[in-house]
Amino acid sequence: MKEQLYRWRNKQIRQHTAVIDGEIAPSLVLKNATYLNVFLKQWVKAHIWIYDDRIVYIGEEMPEHVSDETDIVDCAGQYLVPGYVEPHVHPFQLYNPHSFVEYASKRGTTTFVNDNLMLLLLLQKKKAFSLLDDSQTLPVSMFWWARFDSQSELRDEESFIDDDVVLDWLSHNAVIQGGELTNWPEILSEDDRGLYWMQEAKQRRKVVEGHFPGASPKTLTKLKLLGADGDHESISAEEVYNRVSLGYYTGLRYSSIRPDLPGILAGLSSYGGQFYDYLFFTTDGSTPSFYEQGVMDRCIEIAIESGVSTEEAYAMATINAARYFGIDHRIGSIAPGRIAHINFLDAKDAPTPTAVLAKGEWITFEGYAFQRLTPNIEWPRYGLSELTIDWSLREDDLIFSSPIGMTMLNDVIMKPYLVQSESQSQSLSTADETANVMLLDRDGHWRISSFLRGFTKSIGGLVSSYSNTGDIVLIGKNTDDMNQAFERMKELGGAIVIVNQGEIIYELPLPLQGVMSDLSMDDLMVKERELKTILKEHGYPFNDPVYTLLFLSSTHLPYVRITPKGIIDIKKKEILFPSVMR
């Protein structure tokens, strides 16, 4: 019998101790194992006994009692390390929670701490909690956050995030973190509701994760006083050092937007002190094709290449994150009492495993555990069905007018500009990089439109049901193409669709509420690369268009955003141009 949701029952624990006494045979014995003891930071030789999903013994002895069902594996010549921990997952970057962890587990990442934002926005709480509970049957460890803000400006945010919702999430056994605090400036100055939720997280002995890009030591000190425990927004070795020196656990990021890890590690070599115990890795919700390099295994590889010892590098991907979350009694090490998450390596400095054991199940053997245990996820029973839109754009929806436009500085940062003259024609000129842009309520109640410079020179119409708020993004130079792309997106039940000169040149169905794909990660990578190629051919000058679509409405980034309330000046928190009812 496997771990029952969030803890082992008394009967199971008695069975585990009975294995030591020789009364019950272990399920699996890993003999002649050389494993990394993360407490000693040494490689140790031993035999490892496992019963169902739990490590019950490590030492010099072989079990007195084995049965026909006991699997004995000789690990001579291999190196065993704990399953890796990804402590900061956004499991909805076109992929879904299941497809991401299935892919990552085959490369050794067996524990995930997931953002709950899309579950808050898209699902009823009861269905979301059913998804959390059912995820415990997967052959990985799945944990979640409790968000305190929407990361945008919703017209009815309190219907999604209020005291009852946040406290119920914080009380759920699968939730081990409050935050991340993308609204930290408000909490620092005047948001007593957010501060109250931070204290409630602490009361429940759950950490509070920050989101503090560019914060000074003085600001970090004040946020520590408010209750922040960790932060993953450092972009330099100095920022990492400042956080650790103040007692923060600090995530080192290697993501598609911020691949900072190599530079940070190079810079840290100039600092004295023993700070590695307070560092861990994260890929921070990268877009699909970035993961061709790997997940946590790639981060460990970079650390080793940067001169970090193998023992410290593996600790940063395992026990450090487990200690941060207070779950090191269950994961993060190969030790008695821990869940049997174990990676098998050909060499100490080769972190991509040749075999993976997760909850005592072989992930990377033929017919690996995901396909055998959960061949199909019934997404509609959780409320993640196709997006249903039973309305169409009107002629006046496609009249674009705004005194404020937005200029892209990179994939995700935009500055405002004053619109000198407006064109209400069907097509914008391809002589410059100005396109129409609209955020449209998925229920058809409101819209906000403007102009966007720097996204494309020639695309007629792109429509995406994938966005930070779950609403519809339209970008393009031709209103007929935009309308055609919108109608095709509706037919697909949610999608990213590109139409140019009346021809559909790209489509990616997103059947999980218009936000997530049901494709495997490998297939999704192909589709994302195709999207990038098409957009670059039409003038997109940056590297991560998926994040552009996601963050158009995200108010934790400077300088201007298009949100459900309107176009907002982020620094001043002012609505420059309001959204309108349709």
UniProtKB/TrEMBL annotation:
Record key words, sorted: Hydrolase
Adenine deaminase C-terminal domain segment(s): 424-573
Reactions it catalyzes: adenine + H2O + H(+) = hypoxanthine + NH4(+)
EC number: 3.5.4.2
A Pfam family recorded for this sequence: Adenine_deam_C
Top EC category: hydrolase
Amidohydrolase-related domain span: 79-362
Keyword ATP-binding attributed: no
Family indicated by similarity: Belongs to the metallo-dependent hydrolases superfamily. Adenine deaminase family.
UniProt-recorded name of the protein: adenine deaminase
Species of origin: Alkalibacillus flavidus
